[in-house]
Amino acid sequence: MIQTIVKAGYLISALLLSCLSAINLAHAEQKQQIGNFDIHYMALNSTFITPEIAKTYGIERSGYNGLVNITVLNTSQPGSPAVAVEISGVANNLIDARTTLDFKEIREGAAIYYIAEVPFRDDQEVNFDIAIKYTNQLNTSLKFKQKFYVE
Fold it and tell me: Which residue, 4, 82, 91, 93, has fewest beta-carbon neighbours within 10 Å?
């Protein structure tokens, strides 16, 4: 899993994953395959990233702030390049308090990824519902949940 991300040249994903050595990586980064596209996604507490990374990307690093990271790869092209997508979404908790996700597009060389912050309370499960579109080739909804803990 980590080799796929590093091979694809996703610096921030690799840096985020390197910060996750203390947790189970199988739950940190996941992938959904839709046709010719691989959608890589993960959600984690923003305290897992370094202050330098947070400053560089304008992320609020807090024990009550989560981070969701999405990358879409076109597997029909040589090298499975990242593609720029239209992305939007919401996060909600079990009592249905909703937060609109404000995704930022980040480009580093050929890498393209989208990050958004989400507030949470201790021991809270957050449900994500994210719409992803790429021209007329991809129009999907990504749904997953992540449990967050205050550090």
Answer: 4
SS3 6: helix
125 HSE (CA, 13 A, CB side) = 5
Measured CA to CA, the distance from residue 9 to residue 6 in angstroms comes to 5
Beta strands in 1-151 (DSSP E): 30-34, 37-45, 65-74, 86-92, 98-101, 104-108, 111-119, 124-134, 138-148
User: How far apart (Å, rounded) are the C-alpha atoms in residues 50 and 6?
Assistant: 18
Pseudo-torsion of CA 60, 66, 72, 78, nearest 10°?
Answer: 80
Q: What CA–CA distance (Å, rounded) separates 73 from 13?
A: 13
Residue 49 near residue 38 (C-beta atoms within 8 A) = no
- C-alpha to C-alpha distance for 107 and 82, rounded to whole angstroms: 10
pLDDT digit string (tens) for 64-117?
999 999 999 999 999 999 999 999 999 998 787 899 999 999 999 999 999 999
The structure's pTM equals 0.80
Closest alpha carbon to 39 in 126, 101, 118, 128: 128
How far apart, in Å, do the first and last CA atoms of the chain sit? 26
